[in-house]
Every structure is written in C-alpha cells, then in structure tokens.
Amino acid sequence: MPIKINKLEIENVKRVKAVKIEPTASGLTIVGGKNNQGKTSVLDAIAWGLGGNKYRPSQANREGSVIPPHLHIVLSNGLVVERKGKNSDLKVIDPNGVKAGQQLLDSFVEELAINLPKFMNSTSKEKANILLQIIGVGNQLFELEKQENEIYSNRRAIGQIADQKAKYAKEQPYFPDAPKELVSISDLIQQQQAILARNGENQRKREQLATIEQQYTMRAQEVERLKQQLANAEMNLAKTAQDLEIAKKSALDLYDESTADLEANIQQIEEINRKVRANLDKDKAETDAHDYHVQYTKLSTKIDEIREQKASLLKNANLPLPELSVENGELIYKGQKWDNMSGADQLKVSTAIVRKLKPDCGFILLDKLEQMDLETLQDFGKWLEQEGLQAIATRVSTGEECSILIEDGYVAGQEQIPVQQPVETKTWKAGEF
C-alpha cells in the first residue's frame, strides 16, 4: 500500500506558530487562508521533515519565537518522524520502536512529491525523459528517435538535391532536332573522304568511257580506210561495241553523292554539339531528379514506419494518464505541449508522473492551487481520490473548498494556547505535542 501522512503537527516553523492537520487519506486536503498567514510554511515544514536538511528553510525558526522548531509526522506505515531540539535533529521510529534515519525515508519518499516545482520548472525534454524512464520505454524511444532524425536529415538533403536537379532541368534549353549523341568531326571527315573516293572512281569511269569512244571513232575510220582489213576490223568493232554498251550501262547507273550536308555539319558541328550537350544535361538532370525523388519517397516511408513504432510503443506503455504521450522529445497532453497546457492540466500531469516515480509514495505537496477554479478543483480532487493519492495543497482562499484555514500561524477554530506555556492534558492543543 502507498504510504501516506496520517497526522502532522508543526510548531514554530517559518510563519507557523502551532498547527495540527489530519489529511484525508485520498484526495485533496486544502490549506486555505489569506496571504502571509503560514500556508506555504506548512508545506515547507513537511518537505523538511521528510526530505531532509536540504529542504530546511533558510530561516526555519519562526520570527520572534524562543522555542525551536518542532515537527511531528505520523505516516500510514506506522513510522513516526520528528524534528525537535536546538538543532532540529531527525528521529524516525518504526512501530516496533526501532530507530532509523533519513535513508529509510528516502527509500519511499519521492523527492519530486515534496518538491513538485522542481519537476514543473524542468525543461520540456527533462519532463519527457522522466516519463519515458518510468514507463520503461526511454531507451527504445531514444533509438527510434535517433533513427528518425538521421533519416529525416538524409531525406531533407536528398529532397533539396532533387529540387535543385528538377529546377536545373527545367531551366535547360532543349533542341528536339539535335542528335541524341555528340557528333565526331573525325567521323564526318572520314565519311566525306569515302564519298570523294567514290566520286573519283566515277570520274575515272567517265574518263574511261571517253577513251573507249575515241577508240571506237579511230577504229571506225580505220575500217573505212582499211576495208581490206574489214573482217578483222569488224571483229574489233563488234568487240568494242560490246564494251561500249557495258560502259554506257555502268555510266548510267552511277550516282554522285553530295558532300554539302557533311560540309555544313562540319561547319556547324560546334553548334550541333552544344545542342546535344544541352539535351544530355537536361535528360540527366531529369533522371537524377526522378531518382532522388524515389529515394525521398523511400525515406519518407521509413520515417512513417519509425513513427508508427514509436506510437505503438507509447500506446502499449503503462502511461500515468490517458491522452498523455511524448512526441519529438516533449510531453503532450490532450494534444497540447507543456507551454500550451492550462495550469490545472500542468498540475495534473505533474502529479500523475511524480506518482509513478515511486508508487510507494502515496502523497504529494501542491502549492498555489488558486490557479484552479472551483469546478476544476473539484474534478482534480475526484481524480486524486480515484488514484488513491493524497495531496496536501495550499490555496489563497477562505472558501468552503478549504479543508482548514490558517490565520496568523494557527489553524482557524483550533484552540490557541501560547506555545511556551506547559499544558498538562492528554488532549492535543495548538502549540503542544
């Protein structure tokens, strides 16, 4: 069972003269009153009594009192905690009469339960880390967030490169009439030389035709002159006629190729190649942009998968409150970050988390509950009761919501007896233990 405060008696601590309180076991015990009456002194005295000398007020003795501070706290596990005497020495006695010390108290008293402002004033990251550690997923979530941040940074860089490539590709001119590959001037020259060689062969054949025609004419004349050699001449003539026919047919089939296009290409090769290079650059930039966008999409998928793992991790964790979670290293409650939460929600979240730190500590001290309206205060009290948590709180108020009222260092309505006057009665009275 969580350990709670059954009874506390305080004398001569800060503004408190003599106060006795028996807090309710679960829910809110509100110490009300006007300002400067000793409300906060009650909480400071409890923190000192249970938390040790590091919580001792800088001016623990009530101003004007010659009697040293005296604290008497009875806990639900039977422990009795006292501080009394000139040095306010600590005495812890268990139900069997065995004496103990601060170490025993530290084993079940959660420091933040008696010093909630320490938690509330910590950074958002510190708050989140405390929650993650107590629900046992801190290390796992840390690794997932580390992976997410690395992939996110990588994806961001790739996305920037992809955008740059796409922008570069868009800015590049494109020449649809340009070849797909760069033109080689040596290839063009070789093509030109091959055409010239074929044209030269054609010219040789033309010259050969002229020679044969000349031979034919000379031999025809020779036939006329040498009729006596007609038979031989006719044979030569017939043979030459055959050659003539063959040569004519070959000449008719000959076609001279033009080198004009090649010459123009050679002259314009730099311009052509400039267009080809521009087209190649544009194509490469578009391809690169597409590839980077593909990588970006894959990394986005990985980030989504990691975020799903984180959400599942927190969903399955035993969180102190419904709708309480951690996102990007910050506490989130009802969809709001810490600085956007209401003061009431901040107190509720803090109380729930601190309760989880040491489940054996069944109480918590809360100062300045005037930030809650009465309806919120009532809901908060019901929640504390449901959780079986005891809260001793202060509120600048004299309304009915207050469990007790502090006036000038006393509990209003309790019999006030001078603290230095001895009283021989077994009934407790203000100022005596």
What does this structure look like?
The protein is an alpha+beta fold. Among the domains are: 5-109 and 358-411, Rossmann fold (3-Layer(aba) Sandwich); 185-276. The protein has helices spanning 39-51, 102-106, 111-114, 116-120, 124-134, 138-171, 185-225, 230-253, 260-315, 343-357, 374-387; strands at 5-13, 16-21, 27-33, 70-75, 80-84, 89-93, 99-100, 324-327, 330-333, 336-337, 363-366, 390-396, 404-407, 410-411. The protein has a 6-stranded antiparallel beta sheet with strand order 2-1-4-5-6-7. It has a 5-stranded mixed beta sheet with strand order 11-12-3-13-14, sandwiched between helices. Strands 8-9-10 form a 3-stranded antiparallel beta sheet, covered by helices on one side. α6 runs antiparallel to α9 (260-315), α7 packs antiparallel against α8 and α7 runs antiparallel to α9 (260-315). The longest helix is centred in the middle third of the chain and has 56 residues, at 260-315. Residues 209-316 form a coiled coil. Keywords: Coiled coil. Residues 4-321 form the Endonuclease GajA/Old nuclease/RecF-like AAA domain. This is Chromosome segregation protein SMC.
Name its key features.
alpha+beta, 433 residues, 51% helix, P-loop_NTPase, ATP hydrolysis activity, disordered C terminus
Describe the structure concisely for a colleague.
With 433 residues, this protein is α+β, with helices and mostly antiparallel strands.
From the alpha-carbon coordinates, what is the Rg to the nearest angstrom?
52 Å
Morphology: rod-shaped
Secondary-structure class: alpha+beta
Number of helices in the DSSP assignment: 11
Using the 3D structure, state the CATH architecture of the domain at 5-109 and 358-411.
3-Layer(aba) Sandwich
Assess the beta-strand content as a share of residues: 15-25%
CATH superfamily name of the domain at 5-109 and 358-411? Answer: P-loop containing nucleotide triphosphate hydrolases
> What quaternary form is this?
single chain
The CATH topology assignment of the domain at 5-109 and 358-411 is: Rossmann fold
Reported for the largest beta sheet, the result is:
6 strands, antiparallel
Low-confidence stretches: 419-433
Through-space gap between termini: 28 Å
- List SSEs in N-to-C order: EEEHEEEEHHHHHHHHEEEHEHEEE
Q: Largest beta sheet: what is the strand line-up?
A: 2-1-4-5-6-7
Number of strand elements: 14
Average predicted confidence as pLDDT: 85
The CATH class of the domain at 5-109 and 358-411 is Alpha Beta
Helix percent band: 40-55%
